[in-house]
Amino acid sequence: MRIQVRRTGGFAGIERHASLDTTGRPDAAEWQSLARQALAGAATARPAGVPDGFGYEITVDGTTVYAADPRLTEEQRTLVSRVLKEGA
User: Fold this and answer.
1) 31: CB partners within 8 A, 6+ apart
2) What mean pLDDT is predicted for residues 45-71?
3) Is residue 60 pLDDT above 90, yes or no?
4) pTM value?
5) How far apart are CA 87 and CA 72, in angstroms?
6) What is the rounded distance in angstroms from the CA atom of residue 60 to the CA atom of residue 28?
7) Under DSSP, is residue 12 helix (H, G, I), strand (E, B) or coil?
């Protein structure tokens, strides 16, 4: 499973992105479960955010959803944080 995250907005407007491939990882099942939960019920169009808040584009195996601060689910927040930290 390929997971990509793109974060835009914020006070400085600096874009950040990272991707991660779960293939061959010992924790692949955990990543896949988290990704499925993050996509469940997510917006397929960019939601309105708050001034200086971040907007997120989350793509999992070609399926893209959108989220914005402060309305991320706990699973979305965890997935975004982990991919931006551990991904390339």
Assistant:
1) 1, 3, 20, 22, 25
2) 93
3) yes
4) 0.93
5) 20
6) 13
7) coil
Distances (CA, A) of 37 to 1, 2, 14, 16, 28: 14, 15, 27, 22, 14
Distance from C-alpha of 22 to C-alpha of 33, rounded to nearest angstrom:
11
Whole-number pLDDT of residue 63: 95
Residue 20: beta bridge partners? 3
| pLDDT reported for residue 41 | 79
Q: Is 30 helix (H, G, I), strand (E, B) or coil?
A: helix
Q: What is the pLDDT of residues 5-56, one digit of tens each?
A: 999 999 888 999 999 999 999 999 999 999 999 999 788 999 988 989 999 9
Query: What residue spans of 1-88 are helical by DSSP H?
Result: 28-39, 74-86
Which pair of tokens denotes residue 74? Answer: 């706990």
Contact 2, 61 (CB under 8 A): yes
